[in-house]
């Protein structure tokens, strides 16, 4: 069911907020082989081989260090004071911050494992790497604030000229190494070896938000900007001037423009004509393993869809439900296809060339990098770090850079901060006028600055003009420009260079919102790069100014301006490069409200794009592949907000209503295994085992965020007309995040969680009390699976202390993995097995052959049986009367043939069960003639019917003016006691008859019914002479039975021990009904009504409440037969009442835990099979006029037949199916081979299995339980012809049902049921 497969929001584009771009973040990926760092170094602290001074941590400070100045005499005293101030500051910071942003052993550990240029967060913050996960390492935020405070104190001391003011020892070392005096200004280009913490701390001294201006102190200590990257200090510079690009043109020494001054070559021109090195051009390579995964997924998807359509949608009235679920599954599969394609290719030169032998990075062209940092209401301590890192990061040797802080919030503190830097290439931009109804403030803000920088015709902009965009919290690494800018040399059509994102406050072990998104950064985006798709991610990227202008700047009509920009660039044939290194670090929202608000904003922007004229599918300039790749982005959202709730609802619907959208069969098991196995392979295909958890978080986040996506679609479509225009909401940062309650975001998850918990409890109760429906079991497993993401969200919202929450996530990941695999396995273990009904029909007739006696035919097909009781061709007849008997003076009767009746009577030949069995077999043949012919059992069945009717013709004879009917052959007590082979019985056995003049209406009515039914059968086969003989005998027996009413067992008291009759009017109605069917004589129908009424008047109180169908109770089957023949409303009503009592389990019938219906007054499996046959026969009578009722009857009959064939856990038919009974109470089958003695010890009491397999025999069963005991001397292992008679007809009835009928029937096993027979009820 899928489950549907999960995929992250596939484009990876950055939102329009000014804050953290964590949508496509990842923990850092692998370090480039060509950029190693020495031990103790970070990417922000290059070693001396790269042309820089050694890191401060490698410089000595002791008095013995050669060439270094001695320590200050007051250093020890000052350090003591410093320690005291540090403690005070620590206490202050602890009071200000109530929680750790990045716990030890959490974020830093995972980032460090990725081994890229970000290294660990401790490296970035402190410049002194410690082992990730060190329990004693200080929180980075605390370290940063502490350092800032200490530097403030130092500056205040020096500014005041107070005693004891001492310059930072590392600054002293740096001055000495650079040859600067104490009064000289220390500048960034000269101290590039300083750690980021040093640099940011020295600057952050001027960013106090206490309301006091401390910027004057920057004149001495924060003059680090002199000469760094070409920056010059200017004491008069105030920072508000935005110069157009051509003002700086004179600083360029070369350009990519043609020498004659004409326009630069258009994008897409042959790069080779302009001296682009081959190694800089994009070089693609097929990813063999990724291609294999993609091919497997594509094949599995189409195989799954084909099989589902052909074999699993036979849902009848629920077809629409199955189609709906399959459609959603297909959307999920289609949404994952672009990701599969991305795995097939990769760019092999995705990293810039290494520095030259002098450690200098140069580009082919002298680019001017204009860094745009848009902000709105972000705190200054967040923005200042980004600005300073953007200024500090080293640019290629022949390039220059200008940083623009684009403040839409018009914050005086930010303005003062930029002014305090006093460098011309740090510009504060603000004061733009917002347009009415402005949607995307970030786009408008950047566009405002871009238009000021590049007025006029965009085609005139040199290709050397490059814009770099950082979100306000994205702090670039020191080597950001050196690794990004050279990628522009790959061709004049390279319009954009992208890099991944990561976050310092990321907890990768508990990243339920998938901020890291390794799925995108390490797998999808590299594929986009190889395929040529541009997926701008909103921050940490470069874009040529000409390309940006060509695309019309950032689109302002959508919240996802980055995604839309990528489409516009691609439409204009610009290309993109992707640097697979984490070169900047930011802050991810970690509270639920901001996470939901952020993801909602992204999805709104995508929906805006697709439900507008900007839809990439209909845009010109895009190839079919690009249209598909861009167009499929929306499918990820559809897959999430359609698939997630639907797949949560499906198991609950199954539990409560029994409706399952898939026909569970063999082919369903195959396609589910293949497709979901391929989906797991696709989703968990990684280059590193460390990525597996992030891949899992991708699916979890989609399950968590589906409701946000759904609301976003509404707001982007109907909602904008109903609720008004979409409003941009900024992601809160820092202290702004406090107090945001998540109730509006988690209520849906809480609702589903509680609902699924309740449903799971009721479902388990329902399962434990049976029957075990395959869809029910599978639904319970996947409901537990669906609980996990909802639980994680609620746990995250309520209590997410990392030490605890990380363990929870780890357990949940293992649990979901186990449940997914277990669910697939269960489909195989529990899918409804198809039984060989034709073979079962033939086997059941084999049993009837094993019970034959007399001179057996040579083609009987039972090798271990021989002729027996042939001496009964000349039986001495006794007239039974009460408990005595007297010899009938008529001479011997020929009573050879028939069957031994079995059960507890053993070899007794009792006429009543023989007549009953013959009539029911004839009824089965009449009802399912075609079915018996199709399965090849017609001849065998006709042979058995004739065998029975031949015998019954002999059982009624007139002697001396009286008519006598045979009651039995054999002594009841003797046959119950003795265990002997039939072939070993050679002594004559007494035959007991009763005088019909003294009353034998029950026995006579049954014999008449059997003979009339047989005449109908053979009349239909063309044996009219034999049919006429049978009919004539039936009429005479019926006449004798009606002439003198009474019970035969009154005369033969001994028979009452095994076949005691309790009514006779029902037997007469039964006989009259068959005679009416055979003759179409209304006189017999009139008799039916007469005896029917008398039965209701005199016998119903003692029999009808049993709702039984056996040799003693034929009132209910007579109604079904008459409903077949007449269609009378009375007979139909009574028949439906009879079946309702069994099906609805509210009268005489009940159910075992595994679904077998039993009658409290007739608990044998034979009685159940008789009723199953009646249900199937009545269903054929009703036809399409009552389709729901017919369906219910057939399903119920099929369920009972399947139970005895194996749905009970084992077969209850000897020699058929799995683990059938092997110890039956049949003398010939159980006794050892002759000449060994057969007696009660070697037979009944023997623990050995039957010597001969009594194939096709239906055992009595365990009554009211599913616990069958295969023990010979128990009631459960009794066998007899009366049990198999109705079973034969039921097997034939189910053999003609449509394939897949049972799978449809399984849709009805819910807790709440609506039945045309039982009405609405709760069944637990």
TrEMBL record:
First-tier enzyme category under EC: hydrolase
Primary location class: membrane
Keywords of this entry: Carbohydrate metabolism, Cellulose degradation, Glycosyltransferase, Membrane, Polysaccharide degradation, Transferase, Transmembrane, Transmembrane helix
For this UniProt entry, which segments traverse the membrane? Answer: 286-306, 318-341, 628-650, 662-682, 694-710, 746-765, 777-799, 811-831
Give the record's membrane topology. Answer: Multi-pass membrane protein
Q: Name one GO biological process term.
A: cellulose catabolic process
Domain of life of the organism encoding this protein? Eukaryota
Q: Where is this region: Disordered?
A: 1-79, 256-276
Q: Which reactions are catalysed by this chain? A: Endohydrolysis of (1->4)-beta-D-glucosidic linkages in cellulose, lichenin and cereal beta-D-glucans
Q: Where is the composition biased (Polar residues)?
A: 1-12
Which spans does this entry mark as compositional bias, Low complexity? Answer: 46-60
User: The Glycosyltransferase 2-like domain covers which part of the protein?
Assistant: 469-670
What EC number(s) is this enzyme filed under?
Answer: 3.2.1.4
Record's GO cellular component terms = membrane
Q: Which SUPFAM superfamilies match?
A: Nucleotide-diphospho-sugar transferases (SSF53448), Six-hairpin glycosidases (SSF48208)
Q: Which positions fall inside the Glycoside hydrolase family domain?
A: 839-1291
Where does this protein reside within or beyond the cell?
Membrane
What GO molecular-function term can you cite, just one?
Answer: cellulase activity
Keyword Aminoacyl-tRNA synthetase assigned to the entry: answer is no
Q: Does the keyword Transmembrane helix apply?
A: yes
Which family does the entry's similarity section mention? Belongs to the glycosyl hydrolase 9 (cellulase E) family.
Which protein are we looking at?
cellulase
Q: What is the lineage of its organism?
A: Eukaryota, Viridiplantae, Chlorophyta, core chlorophytes, Trebouxiophyceae
